């Protein structure tokens, strides 16, 4: 938007010259919201977080093990075990919940804060956690500029839980995490619930806990929506509408958030973009009607006002 591509009225408010009036830029922000259930176990030295500490400092041995042998703790992202579940809150026949298992006790009920504080915490209690993720989230937010200065952070409205179905899915996820974490199968590793805690029992209490501790599962998509409608930012060829020789190739072009991790779909988008660049004939031709293409520096007025029936 700082370069002049976005909603014209918003750009003009900030004194940014409009290059292309694309109202969809910054809209359609989607993410996977998450909430955590965590347990403390009396068994010592069994959590991944404990094994990464030695006398209160970073343990160098797992690092050396990975560098030398590509084995050990650092071969895991820490949350690569789990399941996709269709909960009673699901509105389709597809799973609406991803539950991730982490062999570590959360330091804070906000899962992301745990990652931030980990490096500053010398003595970590052992335990295990379940992160519930609403992977079919329907809530939508948007991004707006706070200033024309690119060094000023934008205003991000995540829109989290604006659709009540997302809250319902996470509520079921909390209940499922509790059921799994309290099973007798844990044996000597069975822990005591830390988050949400024994005082949080009713649906209303669980909902309040979710609203207070909600965090991102790092799946932000949608703000440069791909499509053929008036709210799209890029066409099926990934070219920005009304602007020559600019493509967007990342998760922001996904019009609807995937029901799982966004990494692989983004790689697929990049693969197609590379193919289009190598061989432009492979790019699909979108049936856009563009009244006026953007006038860029070095482009004549006659060329910039050329009426186009396609962005290809």
Largest sheet: 6 strands, antiparallel
Q: What is the helix content? A: 10-25%
How many beta strands in the DSSP annotation? 12
Mean of residue pLDDT values: 87
What does the overall shape look like? globular
How many alpha or pi helices? Answer: 8
- As residue ranges, the low-confidence spans are 288-312
Q: Which strand-content bin applies to the residues?
A: 15-25%
Coarse structural class: alpha+beta
Radius of gyration: 24 Å
Write the H/E string, N to C.
EHEEHEEHEEHEEEHEHEHH
Distance between the termini: 22 Å
How would you describe this structure to a colleague?
With 312 residues, the chain is of the alpha+beta class. It contains 8 helices and 12 strands. The protein has helices spanning 8-13, 48-51, 60-69, 111-118, 164-181, 203-213, 263-278, 301-304; strands spanning 5-6, 20-21, 33-40, 53-54, 57-58, 81-85, 97-102, 127-134, 142-144, 155-157, 192-195, 215-216. The strands form 4 sheets. Strands 3, 6, 7, 8, 11 and 12 form a 6-stranded antiparallel beta sheet that branches. Strand 4 and strand 5 (57-58) form a beta hairpin. The radius of gyration is 24 Å and the shape is globular.
């Amino acid at each position: 938007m700082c370069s002049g591509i976005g909603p014209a009225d918003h750009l003009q408010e900030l004194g940014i010259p409009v290059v292309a009036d694309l109202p969809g830029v910054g809209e359609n922000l989607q993410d996977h919201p998450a909430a955590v259930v965590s347990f403390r176990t009396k068994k010592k030295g069994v959590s991944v977080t404990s094994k990464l500490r030695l006398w209160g400092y970073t343990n160098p041995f797992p690092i050396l093990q990975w560098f030398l042998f590509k084995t050990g703790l650092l071969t895991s992202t820490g949350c690569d075990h789990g399941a996709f579940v269709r909960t009673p809150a699901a509105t389709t026949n597809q799973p609406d919940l991803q539950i991730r298992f982490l062999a570590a006790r959360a330091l804070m009920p906000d899962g992301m804060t745990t990652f931030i504080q980990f490096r500053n915490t010398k003595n970590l209690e052992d335990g295990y956690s379940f992160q519930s993720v609403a992977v079919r989230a329907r809530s939508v937010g948007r991004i707006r500029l706070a200033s024309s200065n690119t060094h000023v952070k934008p205003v991000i409205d995540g829109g989290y839980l604006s659709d009540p179905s997302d809250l319902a899915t996470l509520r079921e996820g909390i209940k499922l995490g509790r059921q799994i974490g309290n099973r007798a199968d844990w044996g000597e590793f069975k822990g005591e619930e830390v988050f949400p805690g024994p005082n949080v029992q009713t649906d209303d209490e669980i909902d309040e806990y979710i609203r207070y501790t909600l965090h991102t599962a790092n799946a932000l998509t949608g703000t440069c929506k791909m499509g053929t409608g008036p709210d799209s930012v890029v066409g099926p060829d990934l070219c920005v509408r009304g602007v020559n020789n600019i493509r967007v190739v990342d998760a922001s072009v996904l019009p609807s958030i995937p029901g799982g991790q966004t990494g692989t779909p983004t790689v697929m988008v990049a693969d197609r973009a590379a193919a289009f660049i190598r061989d432009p004939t492979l790019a699909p031709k979108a049936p856009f009607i563009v009244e006026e293409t953007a006038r860029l520096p070095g482009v004549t007025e006659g060329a910039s006002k050329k009426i186009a029936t396609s962005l290809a």
